[in-house]
Write a structure and sequence with these properties.
This protein is mainly alpha-helical. It is built from nine helices and no strands.
């Protein structure tokens, strides 16, 4: 309700007993503002979220209208362009795969619980039986590296990464270099890159593990022991 002074001004304005009264503009504006600010006038107003959505969709509509007038074929032309863009994005996504983070190259392969190669293999098979392919891949790669250490094809070195193990083993087992590097990348992807392993990836690594168990290393010139000629001096020399 208006204040008493405002009401008296309005009553004087309606009264025919005296000359008409002109209400000053500023008091009238203030009185109207106070009246319209009351809650009963805003009970059905849209919420802040609804107003934001309305503004957004109005912007989309204006943008669409502008594009339809500038594109040959009008609205149909815009729809064709949008469909082409969606198809291009889908093709790139299918070709390149899900974006992934770069794996941490300094993370170590083993934890603080030393286990043998058979123990890592048993853990890998247990995870695979439950469909836990990330853990299965991790344990199978650890089994490969631990087996190479137990066969003295790799030196037992704490803090080794999967990439380092693959590079070192590739020098002794050159025919398996590519598969060793692929297994190391798979380990890094699921452990540090946020990717999910697949059943096919696990079976590839398990097959590599089995192949390596029956593979003999290639001895290089540096690793082949040599016997230097020796001469014995006679007592009467």
């Amino acid at each position: 309700m208006l204040r008493a002074t405002d009401s008296s001004l309005l009553s004087l304005a309606r009264s025919g007993d005296g000359p008409p009264v002109t209400i000053p503009r500023d008091p009238a504006r203030e009185a109207a503002r106070r009246e319209l600010s009351k809650r009963l006038y805003h009970e059905n107003d849209p919420s802040l979220l609804q107003r934001a959505l309305n503004t957004f969709w109005d912007w989309i509509g204006d943008l669409f209208d502008t594009a339809s007038t500038a594109t040959p074929g009008g609205t149909l032309g815009v729809l064709v362009v949008i469909a082409a863009l969606v198809a291009a994005v889908g093709a790139l996504w299918w070709r390149l795969g899900t974006p992934r983070r770069q794996p941490a190259s300094t993370a170590t392969l083993f934890d603080d619980r030393p286990r043998s190669a058979p123990e890592h293999r048993a853990a890998a098979e247990a995870h695979a039986a439950q469909g836990h392919w990330n853990q299965a891949v991790q344990e199978r790669v650890r089994a490969i590296v631990r087996s190479l250490e137990e066969r003295a094809l790799l030196d037992t070195r704490p803090g080794r990464t999967a990439d380092e193990a693959a590079a070192e083993a590739g020098r002794t087992l050159p025919t398996h270099t590519d598969r060793l590097r692929a297994a190391a990348r798979e380990f890094d992807d699921v452990t540090y890159g946020g990717r999910r392993a697949t059943e096919q990836a696990y079976h590839r690594i398990a097959e590599l593990d089995r192949d390596l168990q029956g593979t003999k290393p290639r001895l290089t010139a540096s690793s082949t022991p040599t016997t230097a000629p020796t001469t014995r001096r006679g007592a009467a020399e």
